[in-house]
Amino acid sequence: MLTPRRLLVTDGSPLALAALTLQERADQTILWATPALSAAQRSAIERQAAHFGVDRVVGPGLEPASDRAPASPRTIAEGRMLFDALLAAWHCRCGRIIWPCQAGHDLERIAQVQEVVLCVGHVARLDPAWRTVGPEIRTPLLDCTDEQVADLIASGGGGMALAWWCEGQAAAPCGGCGACRHWSAVNRLVAA
Ligand SMILES: [Zn+2]
Fold it and tell me: How much is the pTM?
């Protein structure tokens, strides 16, 4: 039987941090580290787990990656990741997977994410054993704005210091990549 436990898909990002603030019980939350994470991303996951008292952290991302996973085509990478998360959730008896992806007001991207979730769930339910009791996939941040994500992060009490977002490999965020430009603006909202 599945349990009320949730498997939260995490790469240590501010979005994963925001989704973690929505989980009411740390003892019912399992963090699942996505594949091919950097050392900085892994340590952000550790900081988030310690801050929120989550003692179960699993997933392929805990192992140092020999090479970075290919980023495209995006929907295939996301589908593959969700299949892996579904299997992990099944083994951990989690009734729910939390995928903290955000599309804001981008209706095309929202539809794309919903379609990926539907397709993955559909393939899983082709197995009769899975059909009635398989875990469900939720995307609670999908239509959140940056302001709402910032509010969630602020509500967690640990601020952006718990997260990692830079695409670079340096010890500190580079400040110049796309992710740094985006999240530094959110950081100002969290601090405001
Ligand atoms: Zn950067």
Answer: 0.90
